[in-house]
Amino acid sequence: MSQMNRRRALQLLAALGTTGFVAACGSDGDGESTADRGPIKIGLITPQAGGFKSIGDDITNGFQLFLDLHDQRLGGHPVELLTADEGDTAKTGKAAVEGLLKQGVLALTGVVNSAVMVGIRDTVEQARVPLIGSNASPSSLQSVFYIWRTSYVLDEAGRALGRYLRDQLPANGRIAIIMPENVGSPDVVRGFRQEFGATDPRIGDPVTYTNATANPGKTTYASDITKALAKKPTAVFCFFAGAAAVEFIKQLREKFAGPIYAPGFLTEGTVLENLKDNALGIQTALNYSADLNNTSNRVFASAYRKKYQVTPTTYAMASYDAAQVLDQAIQLTGGKPTPQQVNLALGKIGQIDSPRGIWQFNQPRTPQQKWYLREVQRDGQVMSNVLINELATLG
């Protein structure tokens, strides 16, 4: 093993654990030093303005952190990271993808909005360039060959909480379901009903759908909340993220002091900073918690806090893993990778030693992974999503 490869292997061992080490050493047989590998371009697509900007920033930070820990390389190749603004519609997302493809990217990653992900599907598939989506996506994204996801499919969050609340909610309890009218909400509701029991009278009321804007005002949800609370529920199940999550919880707390359950996006990132005491006690299901006790998470969370002065989110973690799987796939292709070779290699990398715990891609190209229950608690002067227990393995 050359000096360069030995140093590379040690770096991967420190940052990724043994899975990364094996992947790094596996291609030594091609006889090519990583020093001889030419630069590659990776396209990163995120919203750069609006209500989802904070999520996009986390995704950018997670990917960049992996590069920082690996000499700005993926698979031994120096990386030029090209960014594009996905905007807030399928049209703007498609324009972002097309612009990056024209610049000759080897692979794409990012994408926050589910509507954008669905809207760019055909463009990505026809271009035959792999996209590693690093945010949750809808179940309607089926039969794809070049689209992979390192986050999760949206119905899984509903399934994880449905199974838990089915046993926790009292026999005389009642849940009000409140969701934005967007692409992902039907998945969340379907997954929740599937595990809780579709005919269970405790969730027998119709779902209350609200405005789907990412930039709500101070009264955007007021009338819908009043409607949902009319039948005196004992708990609320909802699905919001970013700026919409902040406004929804503030408006809900003006009228409801009971338990709130949601997919983990509700309390991720800057949401907690803005909600403060309004977030206390909210329980969420997610594929990641920053206080998970494993080697990969200790490396990731420590490095993330040191660089960005904040606790990492699931968005950052999934993007870090997007970089990790690209690193391993590109390593497997040898010295002159093509998008098609990278795409085939993605199916061969096996288990990923991730900050969330060990996971691997399933047949639909999404993670098979553990889900965790978290509760917002006070940690000194800071609100934190505290890990309560493991809920299920899904995917």
TrEMBL record:
<comment type="similarity">
    <text>Belongs to the leucine-binding protein family.</text>
</comment>
<dbReference type="InterPro" id="IPR028081">
    <property type="entry name" value="Leu-bd"/>
</dbReference>
<dbReference type="InterPro" id="IPR006311">
    <property type="entry name" value="TAT_signal"/>
</dbReference>
<dbReference type="InterPro" id="IPR028082">
    <property type="entry name" value="Peripla_BP_I"/>
</dbReference>
<protein>
    <submittedName>
        <fullName>Amino acid/amide ABC transporter substrate-binding protein, HAAT family</fullName>
    </submittedName>
</protein>
<feature type="domain" description="Leucine-binding protein">
    <location>
        <begin position="39"/>
        <end position="381"/>
    </location>
</feature>
<keyword id="KW-0732">Signal</keyword>
<feature type="signal peptide">
    <location>
        <begin position="1"/>
        <end position="24"/>
    </location>
</feature>
<dbReference type="InterPro" id="IPR051010">
    <property type="entry name" value="BCAA_transport"/>
</dbReference>
<dbReference type="Pfam" id="PF13458">
    <property type="entry name" value="Peripla_BP_6"/>
</dbReference>
